[in-house]
Structure formats: C-alpha cells, structure tokens
Amino acid sequence: MNPTISAALLLTVFQVAWGQKVTSLTACLVNQSLRLDCRHENTTALPIQYEFSVTRETKKHVIEGTLGVPEHSYRTRTNLTSKYNIKVLYLNGFTSKDEGTYTCELRLSGQPPTISNKNISVFRDKLVKCEGISLLAQNTSWLLLLLLSLPLLQAMDFISL
Asked: Would you say domain 3-128 falls under CATH 2.60.40.10?
C-alpha cells in the first residue's frame, strides 16, 4: 500500500477515535435554569454531532441536539451555546420534574459510529449555583498559577504564611 494512503488512513482513524471525546459534564443552576457544560476534545476539522438527553424512570428524553429529535416539551425551553471545545445547554424553568440522569453525547459527522458521552445525575436540591463554581470549574489555570507562584511570592516577602 502507498505510504501516503496509509498515513491518511491512520490520521482518519485517529481523528475518529480522539476528535470528539467528552472530557467532562457539569451541572449548575442559573436563576431558575439548569446549565449543563459539556467539555470535549476537538482535534478534528470534521463537524461534531451532539445530543443532550435526560433519562427518568428508564425512559430517555432528547432535549437538544443534531443526533436525535428533541421532544416538543423541551424545544421552547432550551438555549445552546457552542464553542470550539464546549457546548453549554440552558434548560429554562428547571423544576423537580426535570430531575434525572443527563447525558451529553458526541459523534463525528460522516464517520462510522464512534460515540463518546458522559452522564451526570441532577437533583434540584443538590445543585450549586453556577456563580459559586464558575471560576474553579471553568478555568482552573489561574488557580494553578497562583498555587505555583506562592513560593516565589513568599521568597520576595509579598506574603507570609
């Protein structure tokens, strides 16, 4: 087999295997809306198909996405923001009736079914407010930088512990 063709096939397999892996799914409450943050790797130029769903009493309900058809009761209650490596879903008017196991599922377009997903159990009385976790959960790099710089700040007598 031609080495160029072999390399192209290998690259395609790697894109399928690694291009859409869900790395985390978090849930929090913004006013009366449920916010689901689905973070994923994005190492491919291929379009990524997605689906947010909730399972209650063993029945799956599609909320939003390009894989399945969202149920009518959710269509007017959802708002999706999609960026390079995160999809954020807002479910307005979140009540205890919406509790269940939420899933974020990703799949590459036009490829054999390689599915990546994460689940999270969501209960209204156990949800934290998004403002309380947003800095830590969404961007931990500033916290890591602060922790790594503590010895330097101590050495320069800026702080004392």
From this structure: yes
